[in-house]
Amino acid sequence: MNNANYLSYFEVGRVEWMRAKGRSYKEMERGGRGLVVVEALARYRRPAFFDDELTLHTELAELGKVSLRFDYEVFRDGEEIATGYTRHACVDLSTGKPVRMPEELLHLASDEP
User: What pTM does this model have?
Assistant: First the structure.
């Protein structure tokens, strides 16, 4: 598997994290805000191969006024094969300028265990 694919998996993890909290990324965009990736890191521990069934664990690790960070773990058959994180800035989609996190996202994050 191409290592760049992990960043796509991380994106799916973020979108599904929001969906599991009862909110969609698309709704946030309709409200004029988006989360742009400003930093990404992937650590590859073991290779993944075509047709492997992988499990992704996504966790909100940090939440600030205008940025947040998600951590990721990728498993195959219970064995950790990759980890990583992405840091995002919240931006006004019409201007591209940083803005405060939407209140509803702050409330969703407060539900984290």
Answer: 0.90
